[in-house]
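Human: I'm a chemist; would you kindly supply sequence and structure tokens for a protein?

Assistant:
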Amino acid sequence: MTSKLDTDERKALLSGLEDTGWRAAEGQDALIKRLLFKNFSAAWGFMSQAALSAEKMDHHPDWRNVYNKVEITLTTHDCGGVSVLDIELAGALDALADGVAEVDRDIGRPLMRLVETPEDED
């Protein structure tokens, strides 16, 4: 079973993902990203390629599509939070979206927020 990233792993792995538009999902230990495509066909094409990558990794995103928007949430349900599988899948999805999608950065909280402990939120 895959385990949740500890604080040091989060610090090391999450900062680079924030630069590519990944954010902290509200109310859960998860990554979220929204991509904007030229049209529905481009969005669907990305999702088809992403599905093949996810299947090879045996790690599947939660996502939704509305016309040219694809919103992706990554978390590892088996361990109840963000794991190395989510980091790897985020990287694969970023590579697929590079040059064909625009990132909507106006969602979620800063990704490094997932490094903070619950006591930090008070």
The domain at 7-114 is CATH 3.30.1360.20 (Gyrase A; domain 2). Residues 24 and 86 are 12 Å apart (CA to CA). The chain has one domain: 7-114. The radius of gyration is 14 Å.
